[in-house]
Write a structure and sequence with these properties.
Length: 528
């Protein structure tokens, strides 16, 4: 960016110098002006840009430009009025307003323009220079008020941005620790469920606990999405099941007396999506509906149906969310999807804008209809997909009970959390693998060096003190470039999965089914 800015500015100055030489109307000093531009102004501009970059100290470039105008106008007195106008525009530059130094010394920048241009006007006897200076001086109080207001606004935005960054960082850390705990609870619950007889009275209670973990992982997903560390993973989900889960989770956050009335399709409504993003959209829309209700008791109506698209004759899933709230004024309904536009007093105006972006990314659509005092209706449309219905907890575990042995492949598990390492080893044991444990990246690398001929794959935690997952991965690949590695974490700090050979990602909290599918797929690919 800096080099392109320098190149653009340099080309502009050289073109001005050439134009000065070619136009006799500029006056007898045109060659002196061209030389000043090329040999003084250009090197000085490059020095100022390198010494005081615009993005770091916004006052330096406008200051240079003001001084250049005041100096160069002595070479072209005829351009005095134009130079005064350009100088006035420079005083309104955003860089000056946003910069602490520029704001503090703003009155001195005004003085440079007024005194410098007054001197040039007096020396060269420019016609009407006194009146022009007086007009500018009359505008100075308004300019000072404007600069003060803009600076205060930018300061507030910077404070809010800093607060959001800190909150996002905190949310990411909380989500990471929460996912670690959920992984332990979910893994041990599944193991307990596997060891109980089919008709045991405790099976239902444990299955309910696993469902609770899945619901808690939705909250963790929201924290990850807010922190910008969510993992993008497209899968097929049943929207009916998602709505049931989310409404059960969110009903306690709605105003007291608000009832959610759900009308779901009898057949599965399968869509292909990033589950975390769709969950966030649904939760935001239901919460918006609850916030619109000012006089409970009231109802929020949620319906889901299949519908044929008139455009391409394909099947769509249509989700309708309707409330009996205050509605949206007619003069605001056209801008509800614009960022930072909100009909709520304390709203940030990002919910509907974010929802529209997510729906567009999923080849879907969102529309809204509202009337002030009569409530709001939101329609979400998704392309319907065909496929098997995602299995429930009980079905998945019953399938795992019939899992066959994998010839006792040895898996190296590297994780600094004792409980997670223990549950991961026990899950792998159920799947028929032998395991080798390491409680740090350093210990994991040493174990791999010692037994690399026996180890078939590695389960590697991403966030560890000392030597993290990425560093361990690089060292392991230096020893064995093709060994299958599964990276596991509650979040991805780089928000990306490196496209490397024989590498998979297992997001926490993972289930027995998740682990089985990940290792089976990875080892099958490795053996081909």
């Amino acid at each position: 960016m800096k080099h392109s800015f320098q190149l653009t500015r340099s080309i502009g100055i050289v073109c001005l110098a050439m134009l000065a030489c070619l136009l006799p109307a500029i006056g007898e000093n045109r060659y002196l002006l061209a030389a000043t531009l090329v040999f003084i102004s250009l090197p000085l501009a490059i020095w100022v840009q390198n010494r005081y970059p615009v993005e770091e100290i916004g006052w330096s470039q406008p200051l240079y430009d003001l001084i250049s105008i005041v100096v160069l106008v002595h070479l072209i007195p005829e351009a005095w009025h134009l130079a005064l106008l350009v100088g006035g525009l420079l005083l309104g530059a955003t860089g000056i307003v946003a910069s602490h130094i520029g704001y503090r010394f703003y009155i001195w920048l005004i003085a440079i323009l007024i005194l410098g241009m007054s001197l040039a006007g007096y020396v060269h006897d420019v016609e009407g220079w006194v009146a022009s200076i007086l007009v500018v001086m009359v505008l100075i109080p308004s300019m000072l008020v404007y600069v003060h207001q803009e600076h205060s606004r930018l300061e507030l935005l910077n404070e809010q941005s800093s607060a959001l960054d800190n909150l996002a960082l905190l949310a990411g850390g909380i989500a990471h620790d929460l996912n670690n705990m959920l992984t332990t609870i979910k893994g041990n619950s599944e193991l307990a469920l596997l060891n109980l007889p089919v008709n045991h009275a405790s099976r239902e209670a444990i299955a309910t606990a696993i469902d609770g973990v899945n619901r808690a992982s939705l909250l963790s997903g929201q924290l990850l999405a807010f922190s910008g560390r969510s993992l993008t993973e497209v899968s097929t989900i049943d929207l009916c099941s998602e709505i049931v889960t989310i409404t059960n989770l969110i009903e306690h956050a709605l105003p007291k007396g608000t009832v959610i009335e759900v009308d779901l399709c009898e057949t599965p409504c399968l869509i292909e999506c990033d589950q975390a993003q769709i969950e966030q959209v649904l939760m935001n829309l239901i919460l918006n509906a609850g916030e619109a209700i000012v006089s409970p008791p009231s109802k929020i109506y949620i319906s889901l149906r299949h519908e044929s698209s008139a455009a391409n004759l394909s099947q769509q899933i249509v989700l309708e969310i309707r409330d009996e709230g205050i509605g949206i004024p007619a003069d605001r309904i056209g801008s509800v999807f614009e960022p930072f536009v909100s009909s709520k007093p304390m709203g940030h105006g990002l919910g509907l804008a974010s929802a529209k972006r997510v729906l567009e990314e999923h080849q879907g659509d969102i529309t809204i209809q509202s009337k002030e005092g009569e409530g709001t209706t939101v329609w979400l449309r998704f392309p319907a997909v065909q496929g098997p219905v995602p299995s429930s907890v009980g079905q998945a575990l019953e399938t795992k009970q019939e899992h066959t042995s994998t010839d006792f492949d040895l898996i190296l598990v590297i994780d600094d959390e004792d409980q997670i390492r223990d549950v991961a080893c026990r899950l792998l044991d159920v799947l028929g693998y032998k395991t080798l444990e390491a409680e740090s990246g350093y210990e994991g690398i040493e174990l791999y060096k010692q037994r690399r001929n026996e180890i078939r794959a590695v389960l590697l935690d991403l966030k560890m003190p000392g030597k993290d997952g990425w560093q361990c991965l690089d060292e392991i690949r230096e020893i064995s470039p093709d060994v299958p590695v599964v990276i596991s974490s509650g979040y991805n700090p780089e928000n990306k999965q490196p496209g490397r050979h024989n590498l998979a990602f297992l997001a926490k909290p993972y289930s027995l089914a998740d682990m089985d599918q990940t290792f089976s797929t990875l080892l099958e690919c490795e053996s081909i």
